[in-house]
Structures are given as C-alpha cells and as structure tokens.
Amino acid sequence: MNDKTETRYSHTATVTGTRTRGATVTRYAVERTGLAVGLDAGWRTAGRLGETVRKAWGAFADTVSPVGWLLLAVGSGGLFAALQWGWAEAWFVAVASLSLLAVAVPFMLGNSSFAVSLEFDRDRVVAGSEVEASLAVVNKGERVALPALLDIPVGNGLVEAHVPLLRSGAAHRQGITISAAKRGIITVGPMTIGRGDPLGVLRHDHTWPGVQTIYVHPVTAPVPSASAGLLRDVEGAVTKTIVDSDLAFHAIRDYVPGDARRHIHWRSTAKTGAMMVRQYEETRRSRIAVVMDLTAAEYASHEEFELAVSVAASLGLQAVREGREVVIAASAEIPEHAHGTVHSLRWLPTLTPRAMLDGMSGINASEHVMILEQVSKMTRQEVPQLSLVFLVTGATVPMKRLRQSALAFPPDVTVVAVRCAPGAEPQVKSARELRVMTIGMLHDLGHLMVRAAA
C-alpha cells in the first residue's frame, strides 16, 4: 500500500456502547473508516444545502407577484430568441423586461419591523351604524422603513391603509370607518402589511394572526310588558296543579308509602288514627318562549326575514329586561343528506340583554332547517311549564300550519303567532288555538301587543 492509500484509509471513527443481557454487560466498539465518515458528512451537507435552497426558493416564489413572473418569462423568452436567432426585437423585449425586474429589487432590500394595533371605539352596534377604529403603525426597526400597504380584511371586504416612509421609532396613526349597515357578525383581520415596488412586480407580506369581532345587533323596538294581559299567571301565582311540596297549602290526604315525613300533618293523624300528609297547589313562575322560524322558503324577501329577527329580538329583550324566564328557540343547521331524519334545536343565550342580542346577530335563514311545527314540538318537549309562546315567522305560512304549531303546546299556554310582512296593514286575529298578529313595520309591534291582550 502506497503513502496515498495509507493516508486515505488511515482516518477512522470509533463508536462505543453497551449491551445488557441479564446480569452480564458486554461492551463493544465499531470502527468506521474515513471514507464512510466522509460520505456521511457529504450527505448531511447536501441535505442542509437542499433545505436552504428550498427555503430560498419558497421566499423567492412568495416575493414575486404574477406580474413579476410574467416579466421573468417574457425576459427569458426574449433572451433565448435573441441568442438563438439574433432578433433585435427579442433583445429589446429581454432588456426591457429584465430591467423592470432589476428596478424592483432595491425596494425589497432591508428588513422592516412594524408594530400594528387596531382599536375600535365599540365592538357592538345596531344595524345601520358605523364603527370608528384607530390604526397605529410603529417602526420598531433600527432603519428607515419604506412605504408599505396594510390590508385589513373586514367581513367579505378589504380596507387598505397606506403607511408612509417611517424613521426608526416613528409612528403613523390613521382613522378607519367600518360600515355596519346590516345585521351580522363582522370579523376584522388578520392584518397583512406588504412591501413592494410601485409597479407591483415584487412584494413581501407579513401577517398578524389576530382577528377581532364586531357584533351588529338587529334593530329593536320597545314593546309593553309581556304580562300585560297575555300571561295567565304572574310571578308566584298558584295553579290548579296539585303537588306534594310547594308553598300554597291545598288539602290533607292519606299517607302513601314514599311520602316525605316532613309533610305529615300530625294533628290530623292524631285525630283520625291514620297517617295524613299535606297537599299543595303548584306555584308557577311565568316562562316565555320565542320560537323563531328560520326556514328560508317561509320568507318572501331578505327584508321580511330581517323584520322577523327584529321582532323576535324585541320580544326577547323585553322579557330579559323584566327578569322573566325566557327561552329563544330556533332550528339548528342540518346537513343536506340528513334533512328530514335528523332534528336539531338551537337555543340562543338569554342570560343578559347583551348575550341575547349577540346571539341574534348570528342567526340566518336556511333551506336545511326544521319547519316551524317541528321546532314547536321540540320546544314543548324540552321546556315544560310554559306560560306564553310567540311564534315568529314569515307571511307565506298558512293559517293551518300556524294552528298545528300552536297545538304542540298545552291548552293552558297562550300562543301568539307573529307574521312579518313588510308594508302589510297591521292587524290581529283570534282563533281558538292562538292569536295571530300581522306586522307591517317594526314599530307596529307595540300597539299590536296591546290589541292582542285586550
């Protein structure tokens, strides 16, 4: 073996370790020649180089806009044609395209570090209002930041704010007005700031992941107290239902195994010689239900559905403010393949007026929901001892279906159907099962409630 060969294979690497078998410990050593070590090092270097190339290509692909790719393709094609066939026109196209790319490069040099904040004057408004926001952009870097464009997604739209050249530590403040013309939930963000050249050839974006929410509440109208003639019981009033434990004493009956000993009437027991227990009349609190019809086919227009939402929100808001027990029920969205076989009910929050209006902001009409009759039946099953029920729906629902919905509730429950028809003449009709109010405008609700209670 010559000297070169000895030099090539003389470098070795030793790997030591242990293996345990029962109580015996065996030590071993594995020697790898210099060629194997060199190959491993080469593979690792190639892997790191490939990863670097992939990252660089990813950054390059994200920076070049569609206009930049077009210029790059045109310039490359023109350069190929000029070198291949010597066309003067091709030289001109290639030089012009590549020059535009070169001019755009200086706008991407340097790093920018921005701190962006967006503050709203309020995050809950009534439909038809506007939200004022304050945008602040601060250059946190040590160098001058070139002008940039800040994109702010607002719902399905986009608001653009131009950030001027900022020195280190300088701030740019700007007011933004967000229109909340329609009821709904508006998401704002995530914000993206982009640096690029004036021609839009190259662009680099940085995104802040934060998303803010604006609740646009439905328009509501004041209505009289729900207990003004419509409720058959008031807070703490007794009913004809006899129970074993309550506040209002009713009568004395014979003892039945299982009765609580605390209800034994000892004086009557001593007189009769047999165990006697007390009976009570049930004391009921007023419990109101607002059943909202979300079937899109029941509404002739979007305005009609929005009127129904406002009516339901007005009724629920009045009950919550009075401190009554109120539930607002609507059908949940049902998958198309399960429509007709799956029943799902949605309860809107009613703990506070704010929570209730937030829930009303997010409801929408759909074709994949339960009809009013099914929602009424499920509401009756889930909420016992109701006193007053409002069925809020569109103008196309026939009287027969309204009666079927009303029959889902016990006879001692007052059922009022509210049909919403924009522009219709307000009126009240009474039937054996229910009372029907036709609402043409939202402010008709107040005096129709008084007429329905008369």
Structure description:
This protein is 31% helix and 33% strand. The protein is of the alpha+beta class and 454 residues long. It has 4 domains: 3-107, no CATH class; 114-217, Immunoglobulins (Immunoglobulin-like); 237-284, no CATH class; 287-453, von Willebrand factor, type A domain (Rossmann fold, 3-Layer(aba) Sandwich), CATH 3.40.50. The strands form 6 sheets. It has a 7-stranded mixed sheet with strand order 18-17-16-19-20-22-21, with helices on both faces. Helix 3 (66-85) packs antiparallel against helix 4 and helix 6 packs antiparallel against helix 7 (353-361).
Provide a compact summary of the structure.
31% of the residues lie in helices and 33% in strands.
CATH architectural designation of the largest domain: 3-Layer(aba) Sandwich
Q: Indicate the structural class.
A: alpha+beta
Count of DSSP E strands?
22
Number of domains: 4
- Mean model confidence by pLDDT: 81
Rg, Cα atoms, Å: 38 Å
Unreliable residue runs: 1-26, 233-240, 242-247
CATH fold call of the largest domain: Rossmann fold
Strand order of the largest sheet: 18-17-16-19-20-22-21
Strand content: 25-35%
CATH superfamily heading of the largest domain: von Willebrand factor, type A domain
- CATH first level of the largest domain: Alpha Beta
Largest sheet: 7 strands, mixed
N/C terminus separation: 118 Å
Give the helix tally.
10
Shape: elongated
Helix content: 25-40%
